[in-house]
Write a structure and sequence with these properties.
mainly alpha, 4 helices, flat, single chain
C-alpha cells in the first residue's frame, strides 16, 4: 500500500510540474502519513533530513561543483 501511494503521488506531482526535489519529499511524507504503517514517527523523518543535510562531505561537494562553473 505504501509503495502504491509513494509512486502514484510522485508521478501526479511530476505531472503537476512540481520540482523533482519537492515531489520526492512530498510523496515520501504522503506515503508515511497515509500508508497505514505508523511505526516511523514524523519527527524522526525531520531529524534525519536535517542531520543528512548537515554533513560536511555533502556541503563540500556542492561548494566545489559551484566553483567549476
Amino acid at each position: 500500500m505504501q509503495t502504491a501511494i509513494l509512486f502514484i503521488s510522485f508521478f501526479v506531482l511530476l505531472l503537476l510540474a512540481v520540482p523533482i526535489g519537492y515531489s520526492i519529499g512530498i510523496a515520501t511524507l504522503l506515503a508515511l502519513v497515509f500508508g497505514g504503517d505508523s511505526s516511523i514517527p514524523l519527527i524522526m523523518v525531520a531529524q534525519k533530513a536535517v542531520t543528512g543535510c548537515d554533513s560536511f562531505p555533502l556541503m563540500a561537494v556542492s561548494l566545489s561543483a559551484g566553483s567549476v562553473w
